[in-house]
Amino acid sequence: INAEYMGDAAEPVTWATLPRYMALLRGHRRSELADARRVAAVRRGLAAIVPLEALTIFYWQDLELRVCGLPDIDLGFLRSHTHYQVGLAETDPHVQYFWRALEAFTPEERRMFVKFACNQERIPTTCTCRAGGAAGHVPPY
To answer: How far is CA 79 from CA 24, 71, 137, in A?
Structure first.
C-alpha cells in the first residue's frame, strides 16, 4: 500500500491503525481486480500453463497438485528420474550415501535440497514414461 492509499506513507501500522490499514488494503486489492487489462493478463498467463477449461472442473487444491506437484518430495520418484553422468552409477558407494542422506532429511530439508539442485520447490507427480509415453523424463534430474 503506498501513500495514495494510506494517506501518510510514514504512518506505521500498529494495533490501533490495523483496522484502517486492512480496510484500505482490501479496497486496493479489489481495485486491482477491477482493471480488465490486469485480469486479462492473469488469464493469458494462467492459460499458458493450465487449460482454462480445467479451471471449471477442478478444485483449487487439485489444480495446485497438477501444476505444482506434491509439497513433499517423493524420493522414489526422484530416484527413478535421476540421470547419472558418465562414470557414475546408482550402485556407487558415494551415490548410495547420498540417497541415505536424503532419506534422513526432514521434508523441509528435502524441499530445500530440490530448490538448490533443480531451482524448483516441488517435483512433478507424474511423468510421460509412466503412461508409456516418451522415453525421456521431464524434467531429468
So the answer is: 49, 17, 12
Distance CA 70, CA 15 (A): 37
Rg (CA), the chain: 23
pTM above 0.85, yes or no: no
- In this predicted structure, the answer to whether residue 8 has a pLDDT above a threshold of 80 is no
